[in-house]
Amino acid sequence: MGKLGFFFKRLVRMDFKAMWKTTKLLKERSGRSRIWLLCDMLRCAIQYNAGYVDYKIAQMYRLTDEQKKTQITRGLSNTIVRRMNDKAYWYLFDDKATFNELFKDEVNRDWIKIGPDTDPEAWKTFLAKHEDVIAKPLEGSSGVGIERFTQECWTGRETEFLKELVDKQIGIVEERVIQHPEMMRMCPTSVNTIRIATLLGDKKQGIVYAFLRIGNGNVMDNVDQGGMAARVDLASGKLLTVGADKAGNTFTEHPITHTPIIGFTVPYFQEACDMCLKAAQKVPQMRFVAWDVAITEKGPVFIEGNSFPSHAVPQFAAHYPDGIGIMREFREFIDI
What we know:
single chain; alpha+beta; D-amino Acid Aminotransferase, Chain A, domain 1; Dna Ligase, domain 1; seven-stranded antiparallel sheet; four-stranded antiparallel sheet; 14 helices; 11 strands; 35% helix
């Protein structure tokens, strides 16, 4: 889809109330007038396929045109995904039960797919083995609908508990991942996952970026659930940047645990990268995949793989203090 086609498609679906609210926030942050910001947003939408969320999180109001050209905006990200990933294979990643079965060695935990026809005895057997579980819809993103439950929720009422989950559109229940003590030290309320993006490019194949997603008090580490992210150095596994959230807040240390963020070393990072690179070859029709990896005491495990990687985290302005975005990394793999 061309730039103008994408622009008009987004224009029809635009949440103008949210956009107007965004301009108020950016007016306070930038010192620019709302009229200036709206005009610049419009220009960025047409010229760079940037939506108002792109504009906010990349802080495009402070960038030169040359810097703006280096941002992977939503429109450009969509183009890359559709070019690299055969839609006929998306379901292998979008359906969580299908993903768990396909990558069962890398998932490496107990799970059960549930529905109205679930065998009650198999369900009771599964619950009897676990003190707490994570329940998820079969499809979805941004952590929506994911909940944690403990034994108190189902003991003596396993059948009723199953019905409650099915009524909530839960489709899969998993053994809870117990993360590595170092990752717990960063934030104990959530499993803090590494988002590792593999790209089977025309120029070369490998890892295009990695970010540690860090919870901020919620069960989920996702930035759409209040979490933050920091960029990981691919060579060392150390965090290179401050933590940043989707609202534009930055953190040099975790606000709850006070663990320093810059310089924190992710355990088993090389093993996590190797696991993702190997997994990327299993479905070569999916050339651009963002893997969410948890780190346990025994090593890395998959939480999920994303067929349509989010463009948000790799745009956070705090991760690129020189204003040069992640385009340069992508250009090592493909022509954009």
